[in-house]
Design brief:
alpha+beta; globular; about 150 residues; about 30% helix; single chain; 4 helices
Amino acid sequence: MPYVKIRPICLKDLPQIEEIELSSFPDPYPQLLFETLAAHSPETFLVAVEEERIVGYVSAMKEKQRAIHIASIAVHPSYRRRNIARRLMTTLLKTLKGMKVSSVKLEVRSSNIAAKRFYETLGFTHSKTVKGYYEDGEDAVVMELAPQ
């Protein structure tokens, strides 16, 4: 099995990131959002690369002075269950710790039990529920973490 490297995004990665986004979410973010995140927050937009192919990513942005919002995390369907998401998140959280971030938050579909459990293993806790957050009307669970 080839080695997966985690590194900051490059603009040339965007087409592959869009492919992963489209294959991962029923209401994918537009490419313009990823272009904006890559331009303004490259230090918190990480990609997982295997032999020149982008196989996953995590993108985050500053929300306030020392608060970060994780916008999206996804792994290509054929690369799931290989701890790539965990490596992306732990690398991002180490980066955020170095930036002296005081809080990290994200939203996850209320029905996505596996994702909620995954975030809990990283130390995230349920902070609130936002009714009708997603386009299809599903609620979002807001999860937060205070990096150590």
